[in-house]
Design a protein that fits this description.
Largest sheet: 5 strands, antiparallel
Oligomer: single chain
Strand content: 15-25%
Strand order of the largest sheet: 11-10-9-12-13
Helix content: 25-40%
Radius of gyration: 21 Å
Distance between the termini: 42 Å
């Protein structure tokens, strides 16, 4: 299998892999055209690779498009799993919308920047001053109901498989469960309702490489977001992701044919 990677660290150990620098996109077009897969390109390369060169990329195009923006991600969740999506309000950042959402939401509530990760760009809004500071920072208003939790679950999905799932407990700072923000990893058993939801979302949306963050409230799972690129702190076996990626690439080499096999001509009528 002929693989080309733009991320040496995430593809270490994958056989038959040529590693390129991002700017090699313009110098190695034939190499990229001939590749079975192009692995972990940067977001800005996606259109050129998929539409310009006809490359198959991993993670999937859906993983990039949906995972790039929390607004688009939440709208996708609302369509495919509305009962498992916290109530969310999204609006243009205007004075009227600021007042309307402030009146609508019960304190405390959560506000997010559309493009942020690792817990950055997330506010717990407890006062009008908190709300104004957020409004001064965000180009779009994104507010979400506060869920009464002190932990959530990270579910790692590659292809059509859950690779691992573990709890992330709240940091000493409070509110944040992200390991990058001081959250701790807990390997206590994770209910199947949580992993089933993550896998269903991945399959429904065409997301094939992601860390889903899911909260459990009264036994009911709520999806918070997913990260196309995620840390490996919770992976007990360092090769687990690499092995899962290789298995997925090997078993998905041929694109799906939605119309089935070609008929044998002539067809009797």
């Amino acid at each position: 299998m002929n693989l080309v990677s733009f991320d040496i660290f995430r593809t270490l150990g994958l056989p038959g892999t040529t590693v390129l620098k991002p700017d090699d996109l313009f110098r190695q077009k034939e190499l990229l055209r001939q590749a079975d897969w192009v692995l972990f390109p940067e977001y800005w390369q996606l259109n050129a690779l998929v539409y310009g060169l006809g490359c198959r990329v991993f993670p999937s195009e859906a993983s990039y498009r949906i995972g790039h923006d929390k607004v688009e991600m939440t709208r996708a969740f609302q369509v495919v799993a509305s009962a498992h999506t916290p109530w969310t309000g999204i609006d243009a950042n205007t004075a009227e919308a600021q007042d309307r959402l402030w009146q609508l939401m019960s304190l405390p509530f959560v506000a997010k920047l559309p493009k942020a990760s690792m817990g950055d760009g997330v506010w717990l809004i407890e006062s009008r001053q908190d709300w104004q500071r957020y409004c001064d920072r965000s180009p779009v208003l994104y507010v979400q109901e506060y869920l009464p939790i002190d932990r959530d679950v990270r579910v790692v999905v590659v292809g059509a498989k859950v690779i691992t799932a573990y709890w992330r407990t709240q940091s000493d700072r409070g509110f944040y469960n992200n390991v990058a923000q001081g959250g701790q990893i807990d390997y206590s058993p994770v209910p199947s309702a949580v992993t089933d939801l993550a896998l269903r979302l991945a399959l429904d949306l065409g997301v094939d490489h992601a860390g889903f963050d899911i909260a459990l409230v009264g036994g009911h799972p709520y999806v918070l977001e997913f990260n196309r690129l995620f840390g490996n702190q919770g992976l007990a076996q360092g090769s687990a992701i690499r092995d899962a990626i290789l298995d997925y690439l090997l078993t998905s080499r041929e694109p799906d044919d939605p119309e089935g096999p070609a008929p044998v001509w002539p067809v009797a009528v």
